[in-house]
Request: fold
Amino acid sequence: MSKNEISQISNISALKIFGVKNFLFIFNYFRQKHINLEIIINYFETIPSAHRSLILVGGITFFWLLEGAIPLFKFDYKKWRHAFPNLFFTFTTILINFTLAFLLLKTADWVQVNNFGLINWLPEMPLALYVVLGVLFLDFFGAYLAHFTEHKVKPLWMVHLVHHSDHKVDTTTANRHHPIESIIRFSFTLFGVFIVGTPIAIVMLYQSLSLVSTQFTHANIKMSPKVDKFLSYFIVSPDMHKVHHHYKLPYTDANYGNIFSIWDRIFGTYLEFDREKIVYGVDTFPDEVKNSSLKELLKQPFQGYRKPTDMEEIN
Reply:
């Protein structure tokens, strides 16, 4: 055998060894990622209540402090006094969700045992894609669809009005939901778990992401417009959601998204508006004193419906 032939064989062998090593490296990398994702899923499957509480309190605390450092609007208000009714409604939301949690657990267990739901009827897929689709579809049924419906059905709008009547939107506004709305939202989430077919681990992951996302999008923080715009192509950004809190149509009936912005873009409910011109509240219920009173807010869903004023022109 000539030296050239030996050299060629050596090169081929080296390439084979190099290829095998690379294949093994890539295989082990993705296997490790899969294992890491499994660890995350296993964690959320049995996430302790104390950890969920920590996410809630930690999120509010973090964005509360951030609002003091980089505020979008310099509100002239007593922050703790403003926060009181909002934190009260946060507590009632937690209480209702905790009380009804067994329904989520039973539904999630049933769909898993019976292989029922959208993501379970699809061809077999990597765990990462399964989780992403589960969260994405839950975000549609549990948040976007619920939110859209509340704006279109008059009695539900009167309930949801409690959330929109905040004249100083900040991170505490995130869970400013009347107890009736908390039940409505829970019902939509339960329906989503059933239709999508998500196991309890994905449900808990979704709820944790949803919580942090709403705290982030309501926070009175000033981000770079370019960064905010970039984020809005993928997730609901602070400026994108604050357009939804503008006091007049058509902006109030836009940007319903919770975590992902894709649903607003798909269904044509995405709108942009100059954040410096945003006025918080609702045109038909302009009394800020009443809208800051816990007693009045609890009665708000039972007031008569009022037609919105003339629409603003879309910029």
